[in-house]
Design brief:
Blueprint: H1 9-12, H2 21-34, E1 37-43, E2 49-58, E3 63-68, H3 72-80, E4 82-89, E5 92-104, H4 110-120, E6 131-144, E7 154-157, E8 160-161
Antiparallel strand pairs: 1-2, 1-4, 2-3, 3-6, 4-5, 5-6, 6-7, 7-8
Length: 163
């Protein structure tokens, strides 16, 4: 019987050596370029937290998300203008705090919307309910695997890469 608290045999063996900040940045940028889903944490005006997975596209500068305008996440992102994203597994995570730009469906260039649809397999422009685009510009990025990587986990501050 496998232990559900451990994802892989490598993790049972213990943590690998801590990566350098440059290695963590490369790994994070690889995830941004190749992963398709991200955890999106937002909060309502009264502070009620909300967490959902959404598909995204990364253009090298910002993450593009889409969700119904009337959903709790859509309302929260539009009202606060900030978001926290969790990318990867719990034992290899990148946490991204960003500012949010809200765009109506028609405001995004067609080629950018096509890229999102091709990458995610979903085209919000043809969804039944009104969707909005949410462009997330990272302001802070942290990445770590285990306790031995907590020191130096900051990869970006104030929108600038540290490595």
């Amino acid at each position: 019987m496998t232990d559900p608290s451990v994802d892989t045999a490598e993790e049972k063996a213990g943590p690998a050596a801590a990566r350098s900040r440059a290695e963590r940045r490369r790994d994070t940028e690889h995830r941004l370029a190749h992963d398709v889903d991200v955890w999106v944490a937002s909060a309502s005006a009264d502070g009620a937290p909300y967490l959902v997975p959404l598909s995204f596209d990364w253009d090298g500068e910002a993450l593009l998300l889409a969700t119904p305008a009337a959903s709790p996440t859509g309302r929260n992102l539009a009202a606060s203008g900030t978001v926290r994203l969790g990318l990867g597994r719990t034992r290899d995570v990148a946490m991204i705090d960003g500012t949010v730009e809200v765009l109506e469906m028609g405001a995004l260039p067609a080629e950018r919307a096509e890229r999102f649809a091709a990458r995610t397999g979903f085209d919000p422009r043809s969804a039944g309910s009104p969707y909005r685009w949410f462009r997330v510009l990272p302001q802070r990025v942290q990445a770590w695997r285990e306790e031995n990587e907590l020191s130096g986990r900051d990869l970006m501050r104030d929108g600038r890469w540290l490595a």
